[in-house]
Amino acid sequence: MPEKILTSRRRVLFGAAIGAGALVTGCTSNASSSDESAATAPETAGKPGKPVTIGFAGPQADHGWLNAINENATRRAEQYEDVTLEITEGSNDTATQIGQITTLINKKVDVLVILPADGKALTQTGLEAMRAGIPVVNLDRIFNSPQAYRCWIGGDNYGMGLNAGRYIGERLKDVADAKVVELAGLDTLELTKQRTQGFDDALGNYPNITKVARQAAEFTVESGQAKMAQLLQAQKDFDALWNHDDDQGVGALRAIEQAGRDEFVMVGGAGSKSAMEAIQSDDSVLKATVLYPPTMAASAIDLARALGQGKGVSGLAELEIPSSLTLYSAIVTKDNVEDYLPTGFI
Q1: From CA 133, how far away is CA 61, in angstroms rounded?
Q2: Which end of the chain offers a freer environment for a tag, N or C, measured as fewer CB atoms within 10 Å?
Q3: Residue 132 burial by CB count (10 A; 0-12/13-18/19+): exposed, middle or buried?
Q4: Residues 83 and 105 in one domain
Q5: Could you tell me the residue range of the domain that residue 46 belongs to?
Q6: pLDDT tens-digit profile of 202-249?
C-alpha cells in the first residue's frame, strides 16, 4: 500500500524561530550581510534561488516536542518561495517510516530531512538515499553511520544535564548539605543516560550538594505524576529537583501541589510553553527549564535548502554547510523567558 505523503507549499510568515532556528536562518550565501532581520525572516535574505524539493520524514507526533518538530519544519518551508516540502505522515513504526522514505527517494526529491523513529534501524535507508544522490539532513536521532547523512543537526542531551546541574549548583552553592533529586526520562534511551551523566558531572563541582534520589518516568504526564509522588513520599525534604522533560513535568507539578510541598526549586527540561508560562508567573516551584529546542527542525530545513542550492551558511567562511551542528541547551528563567516563550511547544 503506498505511503501517505502530504505536500505543502503555502507561504505564511513564522517569526517565532528563535534559538536553534536563528542559527542558520537565511543560511544560503545569497543572504545580504546588511539585512539585520535575516535571523527571524529568512524570506528577506535575498532573491529566491534554485527551486528545491525537500522530503521530510519524522516520527508520530505523540509528544508535544515531536509535534513542534513537525510544525517548525512546515512553517519554515512555507517562508521560502523556492522550497517545496513533501512531508510524510509521521510514524513510530520502523517499517512504515522506511516505506515513506523510500517513496520520497523514488519521487527523486532534492534533499531529505529525516528524524528517525529509530536511528539504528533507519541507517540503511539513509545510506540508500545518499547512494541515490539525495543528500540527507539527519535530524536529532542520529544514524549509526556518518555515511548515511550529509549533515546532522540536533540537541545536546549531555549539555541539558550539565546546564541543569550548573544552574542548581549555583542556586545551592551556599546551602550546607544540600539535597537534590532527579526525575529522569525513559532509562532504556541513551539520551536519558546522557542527561543524567551531564547532571552528575555538573553536581560534582559542588561538594556541598548530594543527589539523594533518582526516579525514571516515561515522558508522559501520568508517569510524571506517579513517579514524582513516589519521590515525594520517600524524600521528606530536599532543596532542588531536576525533571528531564516538561511534558512529564506537568504531572510532576500536580503531585507536588497535591503534596503541598514547596521547600525546593524545580528545573524542567526541553522547553514547553506551559513550563515557560509557569516560570513567567513565578507562582510555583518551577523556576527554570533547560532547552532541547524543537526549532532545530526549522534549521534543518534551512540546511536542506542550502544543500539543494549548493550554498554554504551565511556567516561562515566555508563554501559548504557543516557536517554536524549541535545546538546549545540554554537555561530559561524568569529573566529571559519572554525571549524564548515563542519557541515553547504545546
Answers
A1: 29
A2: N
A3: exposed
A4: yes
A5: 5-155+294-327
A6: 999 999 999 999 999 999 999 999 999 999 999 999 999 999 999 999
